[in-house]
Design goal:
The protein is α+β, with helices and mostly antiparallel strands. It contains 2 helices and 2 strands. The structure holds zinc ion (ZN). InterPro entries: DNA_gyrase_inhibitor_YacG (IPR005584), Znf_NHR/GATA (IPR013088).
């Protein structure tokens, strides 16, 4: 297994979650972990449509906000 592939600039190479191609996981890739804006857009679209179906008005990442009842 080659899990520590890197570019010449020392940035990690990961697999794009959308298309499976190589993706630079570093400051030079604003779409990381995706390889391109297109792949990132696909993922965001999926999230948006899924969120649209949810009947709750609570924020999706409640970890960041915490449960007010527990504070
Ligand atoms: Zn991709």
């Amino acid at each position: 297994m080659s899990t520590s592939r890197k570019t010449a600039a020392g940035e990690r190479i990961v697999r794009c979650p959308a298309c499976g191609n190589d993706s630079v996981y570093g400051p030079s890739n604003p779409y990381r972990p995706f390889c391109s804006a297109r792949c990132k857009g696909i993922d965001l679209g999926a999230w948006a449509s899924e969120e649209f179906r949810m009947p709750t008005d609570a924020p999706p990442d409640d970890e960041a906000f915490g449960d007010p009842k527990l504070q």
